[in-house]
Amino acid sequence: MMERHEHYMRLAIEEAKKAKAIGEVPIGCVIVKGDEVIATGYNHRETNHQATAHAELLAIEEACNKLANWRLEGCELYVTLEPCPMCAGAIMLSRIEHVIFGAVDPKGGCCGTLMNLVQDERFNHVSQLTGGVLEQECGEMLTSFFRELRAKKKQRKRAMGCNGTDETV
């Protein structure tokens, strides 16, 4: 089973790389039904100027369209970062059977870290949950992205004079 999870997580990592290539936080997602990838997604928040343009939500929308059904029963969702509250809610509401994620999210994770929305039995649907698949690879991709982003911001600040004007002009 772990070999299967790693295979599909690698596909999610490829989606995350697409996000990084366009300056987005590198988070990728694939949705699988049986042995077929039925949907993919990667972050588009900055590109689309949409707070809801998370990898999971974009993939869920694509999967619903492909299956012509809002119920994604029998589907597995693979995502490189533990889903946030919004995405965990969408996962629960779309009735995804199994959520598999890479890195934990200590600031927003709602699949076991801060809370566990997808397994809260008070809701009408509970998903299976597997975390930590290719965790180090998924986590390092995010860590290096934010490290590079901070370095770029620091360089821009140095290029600006103390009065906020660009000294390179």
Q: Would you count the extended β strands for me?
A: 5
Percent helix range: 40-55%
Most strands sheet: 5 strands, mixed
How many separate domains? 1
SSE arrangement, N to C: HEEHHEHEEH
Structure description:
- The protein is of the alpha/beta class and 169 residues long.
- It has helices spanning 2-21, 45-48, 55-67, 85-93, 135-159; strands at residues 28-33, 36-42, 75-81, 98-103, 128-130.
- It is globular, with a radius of gyration of 18 Å.
- It is built from 5 helices and 5 strands; from the N terminus they run αββααβαββα.
- The protein has a 5-stranded mixed β-sheet.
- The model has no long low-confidence stretch (mean pLDDT 94).
- The chain has one domain: Cytidine Deaminase, domain 2 (3-Layer(aba) Sandwich).
- The N and C termini lie far apart (58 Å).
